[in-house]
Amino acid sequence: TYAPKLILLDISDINCIQDVAKEILTCYGCVDILINNASMKVKGAVQSISLELDKKIMDANYFGPITLTKAILPNMISRRTGHIVLINSIQGKIGIPFRAAYAASKHAAVGFFDCLRAEMEEFDISVSTVSPTFICSYHRQPAPGNWEASIWK
C-alpha cells in the first residue's frame, strides 16, 4: 500500500496538468483508475456570459479532463489495463436554459469519452461516463460586475 499524497491541481489550468501527471506517475509508477470529477458552471443568459467565461468553463469541464486523461493514457496502454471514469452531468445529454456554456462543455466531454471508450477496447482499458442529475454544489454569490465570483465549483 501507498501513503496518500496530496497533489493540488487546478483542472482549468491546462499548462500544469502534464507536470502533475508526471509527478503522479513518478511517485506511484502507474494509475489504475482515473476519476475525472471536477467541474465549473455559471448560470446566465447566453448574451450576458462573456466569451472569456465560456472558454474558462470549457477549459475546466472539457480540456481539463481530456488533458489529464491523455497524460495518463500512455501508461495504461503500455500496461494494457486501467479504468477511466468521467463524472459528467445529465446536462451533457440535455441542455437547459441559462446553462449554455456548461451544457456545451459537458456535451463535448461525453462525445470525447464515448469515442475513447471504443478506441480503448482493444487495450482492455475501460472507460465509463456517469451522468448524475442535478446536485448541490458549492456556490459563491457574485458581487455586481464580478463574473469570476459567479462560477460554481
From TrEMBL:
Gene Ontology annotations of biological process type: intracellular calcium ion homeostasis
Alphabetical list of InterPro entries matching this protein: NAD(P)-bd_dom_sf, Sc_DH/Rdtase_CS, SDR_fam, SDR_family_member_7C
Keywords assigned by UniProt, alphabetized: NAD, NADP, Oxidoreductase, Signal
A Pfam family that the UniProt record links to this protein: adh_short
SUPFAM superfamilies per the UniProt record, alphabetical: NAD(P)-binding Rossmann-fold domains
MF-aspect GO terms: oxidoreductase activity, acting on the CH-OH group of donors, NAD or NADP as acceptor
Family membership: Belongs to the short-chain dehydrogenases/reductases (SDR) family.
Entry protein name: Dehydrogenase/reductase SDR family member 7C
